[in-house]
Design a protein that fits this description.
Elements: E1 9-16, H1 21-33, E2 37-43, E3 48-53, H2 60-69, E4 73-74, H3 83-122, H4 133-150, H5 152-163, H6 169-192, H7 204-228, H8 230-237, E5 242-247, E6 250-255, E7 264-267, E8 276-282, E9 284-287, H9 289-292, E10 298-300, E11 305-306, E12 311-312, E13 317-323, H10 329-342, H11 348-376, H12 381-394, H13 397-417, E14 420-422, H14 425-430, E15 434-440, H15 441-445, E16 451-457, H16 463-466, H17 482-493, H18 499-510, E17 519-524, E18 528-533, E19 536-541, H19 543-549, H20 553-557, H21 560-568, E20 572-578, E21 581-589, H22 596-605, E22 609-613, H23 618-628, E23 632-634, H24 639-653, E24 656-661, H25 667-672, E25 675-679, H26 684-689, E26 692-694, H27 701-735, H28 746-749, H29 753-772
Parallel strand pairs: 15-22, 15-24, 22-23, 24-25, 25-26
Antiparallel strand pairs: 1-3, 1-4, 2-3, 5-6, 5-7, 7-13, 8-11, 8-13, 9-10, 9-12, 14-26, 16-21, 17-18, 18-19, 19-20, 20-21
Helix pairs in contact: 3-4, 3-7, 4-6, 4-7, 5-6, 6-7, 6-12, 7-29, 8-13, 10-13, 11-12, 11-13, 12-27, 12-29, 13-27, 13-29, 17-18, 27-29
Amino acid sequence: MITTAAPDREVSLPITGMTCANCVATVERTLRRTEGVQEASVNYASERALVRFDPEAVTLREIGDAVERVGYGVVLADDADGAALDEAESIARAAEIREQERLFLVGVLFAGPLFLLSMARDFGLLGAWAHEPWVNWLMFALATPVQLRVGWDFYVGSWKALRNGTANMDVLVALGSSVAYGYSVVIAALLSVGSTAAGEHVYFETAALILTLIKLGKLLEVRAKGETGAAIRELMSLQPETARLVRDGVETEVPLSAVEVGDELVVRPGDRIPVDGVVVDGGSSVDESMLTGESLPVDRGEGDAVSGGTVNGTGSFRMRATHVGSDTALARVVALVREAQGSRAPIQALADRVAGVFVPVVVAVSALTFGVWWLLLDATLTDAVLRLVAVLVIACPCALGLATPTAVMAGTGRAARRGVLFRTSEALERTRDIRVVVLDKTGTITRGEPAVTAIATLSADDPAYAARPVHSRDIAHGSLSEDDVLRLAASAERPSEHPIARALVDEAERRGLEIRVPREFRALPGYGIAAEVEGRTVQVGSRRVLDEARLDPELLSRWGARVEEMEAGGSTAVWVLDEGRPVGVIGVADAAKDASRPAVAALRAAGLRVVMLTGDSERVARRVASEVGIDDVRAEVLPDGKADMVRALREEAGDAVAMVGDGINDAPALAVADVGIAIGTGTDVAMETADVVLMRGDLRSVPEAIALGRRTMRTIEQNLFWAFFYNTALIPVAAGVLYPLTFLPSVLRSLHPVLAALAMAFSSVTVVANSLRLRRASPAAGETLPALSA
């Protein structure tokens, strides 16, 4: 008996307890070393791990155990991909924020009075009693709860990191605060016995304020990171909790989980549509803006598809469920956004490499600072210790770890609200380099809903007709009529899903013609189709069908004027051959979408080169291109030649190329392009192949997608600049390099550890806040896009 191996499973697991990029590296390394795990990527901003594993080799519980063994938490639920996990994560995140708030409150309650007492004594506001040794022990009593309670997380985090052979931000904070606290204990003890050998001033308030301020920074960071993931929460909130189910004529309100494919549902005015389905009775206008970004409601009637999570207008209708649970469009959007937010952009690699050695380097710099000031510059032990502490607490690896993922989360979230889905953060990064945009014609520039505009046939006295073989089922009176030609073509095309085939069948049905079931149907990509109809071999397709038939040029010339007339009017000439001889030409036209011209204008105004790619004839292609404002046209390209054309354009321009398409024939070109963009109304194959999916069925989202991608990349670059600048500039300041510059204020020449902690606390918050600006960045269709010229 042959058994089939179970396919790999991919899950997104919430991780708790991570404090910086080094923690991310530890969890990621642990997951990748776990037997059965094929691939793992951890995102610090979303605090999730995207794990692909073999379910026959390892279980989710075993993966969770591996992470917990190295000191971090994993949120697991019975359904790791569904609502149960999301609810469990929400509970865990809320509990984490409450705990951070409690710890910060403890810090404020003890560090506040301690700071006031210390400052009042230093400024001589309390009298001689404040300098008695017992006052130092009072400060010790106030500082100790902060050190042990507020600082406990940092000690635990340090132990986890060191046990795993790494060093993270917790090591720096724990080391810096412990040095200040421990040094103050030594001073207090010596002063109690009358010795000033270690100094005369304690720094308990410094240790307490360091921990409290950094805890404030972490609290603000956690809240801000939660804001970057708001897009997913908003999308998930679109799903109603119940649905109105109709069974045996009785309407019942049931939980959404009880709805199955094929169920009939009632949707009333103002309701959110519960699942994906098809309207079977009634109609209404539907607000689909939350999925497509399209602000205007769209009319939906009998036979039309509707999507779960969208909002019904004033009408009422019944629908049949076609997709439920994780198969709905809304669920797929959430999955795509989560996948993109969990992926890692290539630009993050530099920050990861720096973060990997950051803490050991900072510890070494702090030790060097202490040695230089105490041993070489003859500073007091107190001054040397304060500079050591300042260097330890001002360094911030968190800003480096947050620079890229927070911007990616905010950018992809904002894009999702506009109906633009980036599948990976790598695709987001590549949009920065796009200089050429290639647009497929049918279904992308045009509506993809062609209609028959003309039918040309041969008369009985035409020599070309006389040369046609005679069949027993020929029309009795000689020439084939328009209806005869259309009937043959529609019957042959009946099994095809191509838009032109649909146009022929629809026109035949409109005329009431009898459409036969063909035999031996064969698709000829780039040429057309061939099938047996009424015992006759019928071919329907482009001019290439004639070329393959090797017909007499004199015979074909008789059609020239009719074909030119069709193509001059913008119609595609579809040839119909009966037993290898042309018997008619059908003109089919596909109108350009209303949004195509303004979208092309926006792309060109931004300095991008726009190219139209089509398998249609040169004359028809030029007609459509001129209508939408495109000068560069590549016509009569076979489906398998589209990918080659994209490669050729890349080599020709020397720039990155984006390909926009919607059909099966576009999939190879989408895969080859630097950025493949699929129109959401297209085929599943195209959308699976693409890097970016546009939920709206027109080109307006293309300039938006590129603009959002570039703005996100600019934000990442700003974040990385700030993170690197902050650390490279302020660590030397904390070490005292400005001390010789006497014209500077003393606060810069001798940076106090408390100010260093304040700067460190807000450095990562600054990065997250900058990323959050992307939540408001989204140009409307037709708006000028200055970001594209960046």
